[in-house]
Specification:
Radius of gyration: 24 Å
Number of domains: 4
Structural class: alpha/beta
Bound molecules: iron/sulfur cluster
CATH topology of the largest domain: Rossmann fold
CATH architecture of the largest domain: 3-Layer(aba) Sandwich
Helix content: 25-40%
Distance between the termini: 59 Å
Amino acid sequence: METAVKTVCPYCGVGCGLVAKIRDGRITGVSGDKEHPSSLGGICPKGAQVGEIVATPNRLRHAQLRATNTVPFTHVSLDRALSHVALRFREIIQRHGPDAVAFYVSGQITTEAQYVFNKLAKGALGTNNIDANSRLCMASAVSAYKLALGADAPPTCYDDIELAECIFIVGANMAECHPVLWQRVKRRAARKRVRIIVVDPRRTPTAEGADLHLPIAPGTDVALLNAMLHVLIAQGWVSEKFIRAHTDNWESVRQIAEAWPPSRAAKVCGIDEQLIHRAAFWFGQAAESLSFWAMGTNQSTSGVANNLALINLHLATGKIGRPGSGPFSLTGQPNAMGGREVGYMSGLLPGHRDVTNAKHREDIARIWGVPKRKIQPTPGLDAVGMFEALEAGDVKALWVVGCNPLASMPNANQTRRALERAELLVVQDCYHPTETTQLAHVLLPAAMSLEVEGTMTNSERRVSLMQPCVPPPGDARPDWEIGARFAAMLGFESQFSFASASDVFEEHKQCCADVYALQMNGISYKRLRRHAVQWPCPPGVSHGVARRYRNKVFATPNGHAQFQPVDFRPPADALTPRFPLVLNTGRRASQWHTRTKTGHVAKLNQANPAPFIAAHPDDATPLGLKDGDAVRLVSRRGFARSTLRLDDGLRPGTLFMSFHWGQLHDEHGCANAVTHGEYDPISRQPELKFSAVRLEKIS
Ligand code: SF4
């Protein structure tokens, strides 16, 4: 008999609802869930093939153990592996203190798993050394929302696409990275006049579908956005009434904008001045303007400034807190937003709290049932700092959950040195081998999203419940359960006595109970079994709140949004005659992150079969290079090789390479071998979108 089970797509942050058909314990088909309010039945090729990722030959079915990373693994029971890890963690903490251990977790695991590991590190072990791959993804947006609006809460929802007259997309390739949302934008454009502006150095499929493309020089977003504000002010398109009543610090932002006439910005951005005027005109004159952004904006040493400059446009025009208008960050991963709720980055605590705030530590210690001194008052290591500390020998043990940092972190050669130096590397994953599992001492088999019950929150703050479609293979268990079993072995049975994912969610909810921006009191598994819910969701509000700040009261102490003056700073990696070109890394439509999931799906591999290095003919031809040549990129950190693809959609002086294919595909084919770990000073998000390189032919 065939049954249908509702789940959520485990790929991008659109968070499409899926319906899996199950027959004889196997997934026989997947379709879009027409009743899911975020995706309305939409599905893209990755989502449609999701049933294939469950039974791939690289599933990790059993725990494995070895003394050094040069000898073969031995299969052991999960409990035997966990007790070994518990013993080693105890020894290391006894010798070096709790900050000698660290956790690197993921925006792809459930909120419940993120919650348990955050509690394990900060509440049980007493270290804030837990960070997530969201640091590479959304950290700049988190910081900017907090600075400008007082809370990490996107004010908008997907339905705003239907109401916007101008859709302004900055540093986001929605057509490939958020396809179902992009289809919605295109459907809206086909029905009613809406102007789509895309800012991207590359003529991406998204830029090709826009009415206006601004191919700015990489890393010059702030100059462009300040110049747009300059035009809005000069034309009188700002809302003095909104600024006076609902914001602070306008004068400082106005002064900076006045220093950025479009003529100046055009030179810095390397585009025609008229494009800036037209973008400002369309943004300013539209009754409602909606801005999307993603990695192109966030992965920068000016990531927070980029975000703030964009939010400043909305505050200056009053285009925020009303249907069809507002700033809207797109999350790259399916549950980056859940991680932000539980505060799984090194400076955060659950419910949008901070480790530096004594009251916040006290609130959370009470809920966690641990002494308040247990939670350390200073932020732990962020992602880049964690791998640096591992290489330096300050961190001795690292536990990686649900991600593949050797392929995805910047400066892969440094990451390899760090992982090789670890006294204990524990990797908890659904798959093996991955680049990272190959260096592990302990492998822990995780059940994947289609095999567990748990929640994920998408870009529009909508919490969805995943139902298990099939049982996990072998000894694989839900991530939260592995974390809780380990905590119990360390003596924290009572604090981690969760019998189900729902128990974990109820405790997480307590952490969010009195948080103005993040109320979850009205959400329960019972309700989520009926439909997905957006937070904030006070009791009695069945579907939650679609749009934030409708009353123009922001989450700041005085209720006013805070303008933040930001100015242009050049990217960190200097261009020189030896390294004259800019490498921009990114994604392809049919692959996902480092291909641990998609690498075994035939249809997806047919669509995007192999990596390549894209270059503009103006850069390649003078070097004697032609399409299909074997080439390599060389930076100050290392090199990456692949096949050349000529592409006149690139801005001359820039190159593009996808980061999907890591060292397992080609020992010297990892794009991140050339990227660097310089990061934004506030968000500590690394600048993956700008690396100085040269292009060479491989003879
Ligand atoms: Fe999955 Fe994203 Fe495609 Fe939706 S758009 S099906 S969430 S990959």
